[in-house]
Each structure stands twice: as C-alpha cells, then as structure tokens.
Amino acid sequence: MNKYWLVPLLLSPLLANADASSTITLASDYLFNGVSQSKEDEVIQVSLDWLGDTGWYAGGWVSKVDFGDGTDFEGDIYGGYKFTLVNNVTLDIGVSQYTYHGDDVSSEYNYAEAYAKLGYGHTSLNFWYAWDYFGTGAGHGIVMLTHTVVLDDNWSITLGVDHSMSFDSDKFEWESEDDDYTHWHLTGTYAIHSWSMSLGYESNDIDSYADSTFLLSISTVIDW
C-alpha cells in the first residue's frame, strides 16, 4: 500500500465539518505544463475536494490519458494545509500522489510530489518537487508564476509562465541533452454561477512533446 494514499485518511478528522465539491471539466486536450498527456485528444476530468474550516484540505482527481502504451487513465490524490501568513499573503503546502492505469507498465510511472504555493491577491508563485519523477528515479522541480486580471464579475485573464527542470539528467531528460524547458500560457475565462469556459493559448520551447496550441475547456462545480 502506498503511504500517500493515507493522506485523506489522516486528514479525515480535520475534514469532518468540511465543505465538499466536485469539478467536472471537458477539455480539448490534457496539457500538463504545455505537454499533451492525451495525444491532443479531448478529455473529461473530474475532481472531488474537501476543504475544512481550519485550512486543511484533501481531494482526488481523475482524467483520461494516452501514452501510446496502453496507459489510458490517471488518478491523483492530494492533501495539504492553506493558511494566511500576513494580510493578503497566503501559503499552501501539501503533497500529491500521481498514479497511472491501463497496462502492466502503467504503475511504473507513479510518483509523489511535494508543493508550496505562495499567493498574494491574484498573483501566485508555486513550487513543486518530485524525488522519483515519473518513476525514473530523477529529482525534478517546477517553478510557476501566474497573475490573473479580473475584468468584471464574469471575465478574467490569466498569464502564467513555468519552468520544469530535471536534477538528474542521466535518469531523465525532456529531450536529448535538454533537461529543462519553459512553458507559458495566456487564458481568458468567462464564469457565471457554477459554470466557466476558458480559451487559452499555450506554448513552450521544447520540440519533442508539444507545439503551440489553443486549449478550450468547459467546467462546472457541484457543491455537496
């Protein structure tokens, strides 16, 4: 039994009076930091989240994937704690476990990741670190900066840039002799009631995995 599957169980007493919600998303692609996880096919993604009144939270998320080797399903769990440092500055720290399914080799990709997210108003600076990235044994880090401009009650625009890097190029490289890459996106979102629709333009400086592309998604949130 993987120890990270215990996260929701350990947090359950703290989440007894938590708010629960699900998000259902239909997207034109599953892009993970600009790299398609579904061979540029459309996907359905579903999450289930619990948020306690003390800042503790836990959740799970599933999506279709296509790695070309029979792997066709991703299931993740996560848990953490979000709190206010001072005024409008927040810190969110937690751990995620990524799991993959569909073929005998799929579970070899499983890995855990720790994260810290620093927020100030509509700006966020996020960090992720995996010590066995995608089952390769390589250390891997991601740094992301995003800023959202709220235009009115319904419209917003988000600009984000992130940098992914392998710390063990002998175990994992994004492409030959290239152990890092940069991805950016510009996304417009229209939200009304529990529904939102986003259209974004995404690009990166890596050749092997993805080209510049548009990403369209429609989501709805269901409160439990």
TrEMBL record:
Signal peptide: 1-18
Keywords carried by this UniProt record: Signal
NCBIfam families the UniProt entry points to: gcw_chp
Recorded superkingdom: Bacteria
Matching InterPro entries: CHP02001
Protein's name in the database: Periplasmic or outer membrane protein
